[in-house]
């Protein structure tokens, strides 16, 4: 009888332990087309490639990709409460702002939305990271500078980890871009995966 109980406890440990370990770090990714595998199959995108890498390493990290092509900071803010309730993430990574900039939205409105995204996530006990975003220079140096500078300002004001923009070493290489010149192609995705692997590792270790 005792042997049977011990055996049952051992089996339950094997089943429950991986489930709890897999949830130790649940990262909700709020992004746009750059993280939504635009123009590609989902399994070709950097998020899926990164999750595969974590799985191969048996890392206790689960990525929840809530990225949508064309997403703005305001659109993500409208979706956030439901996402936090559904996934209860330990971490929230925000890769947004490009579509706000490309549409010429006021920088202060984007700042308010990004700040609200961070504050809501932190109120749900999630650690937060914000990716610094750059937009093409044809929007004018004043607007471009105000736009990019806002990310470091928000990071400081909200005590949020600031991530480097993963397109900086890709956007100027035609062989890594799709025909539209805006989105990374399949060849670029493993490069983004590797950069984000290092960036997220630094973020998690900092926390």
What is the strand content? 5-15%
Distance between the termini: 45 Å
C-alpha Rg (nearest Å)? 19 Å
Order of helices and strands: HEHEHEHHEHEH
Q: Roughly how much helix do the residues carry, as a percent range?
A: 40-55%
Number of DSSP strand runs: 5
Output the number of helix runs: 7
- Determine the structural class based on helices, strands and strand pairing: alpha/beta
Strand order of the largest sheet: 2-1-3-4-5
Average of pLDDT: 90
Biggest sheet layout:
5 strands, parallel
* Poorly predicted spans: 1-22
Query: Given the C-alpha coordinates, what overall shape results?
Result: globular
Pick out its properties:
51% helix; globular; 5-stranded parallel beta sheet; 207 residues; 12% strand; alpha/beta
Give the SSE layout.
Elements lengths: L1 H21 L2 E7 L14 H12 L3 E5 L7 H15 L3 E5 L2 H5 L4 H17 L3 E5 L9 H18 L2 E3 L25 H18 L1
Parallel strand pairs: 1-2, 1-3, 3-4, 4-5
Structure description:
The structure is a single chain. The protein has 207 residues and is α/β, with parallel strands linked by helices. The chain is 51% helix and 12% strand. It is built from seven helices and five strands, in the order αβαβαβααβαβα. It has helices at 2-22, 46-57, 73-87, 98-102, 107-123, 141-158, 189-206; strands at 25-31, 61-65, 91-95, 127-131, 161-163. Strand 4, helix 6 (141-158) and strand 5 form a beta-alpha-beta unit. Helix 3 (73-87) runs parallel beside helix 5. It is globular, with a radius of gyration of 19 Å. 34% of the residues are buried.
């Amino acid at each position: 009888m005792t042997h049977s109980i011990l055996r049952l406890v051992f089996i339950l440990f094997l089943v429950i332990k991986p489930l709890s370990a897999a949830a130790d770090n649940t990262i909700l990714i709020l992004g746009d087309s750059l993280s939504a595998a635009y123009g590609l199959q989902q399994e070709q995108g950097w998020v899926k490639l990164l999750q595969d890498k974590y799985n191969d390493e048996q890392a206790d990290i689960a990525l929840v990709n809530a990225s949508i092509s064309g997403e703005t900071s305001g659109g993500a803010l409208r979706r956030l409460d439901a996402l936090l309730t559904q996934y209860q993430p330990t971490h929230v990574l925000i890769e947004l702002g490009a579509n706000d900039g490309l549409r010429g939205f006021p920088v202060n409105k984007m700042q308010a939305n990004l700040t609200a995204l961070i504050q809501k996530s932190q109120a749900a006990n999630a650690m937060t990271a914000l990716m610094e975003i750059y937009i093409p220079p044809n929007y004018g140096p004043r607007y471009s500078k105000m736009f990019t500078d806002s990310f470091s300002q928000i990071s400081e004001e909200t005590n949020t980890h600031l991530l480097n923009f993963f397109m900086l070493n890709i956007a100027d290489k035609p062989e890594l871009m799709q025909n539209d010149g805006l989105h990374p192609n399949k060849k670029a995705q493993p490069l983004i995966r590797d950069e984000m692997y290092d960036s997220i590792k630094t973020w998690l270790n900092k926390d």
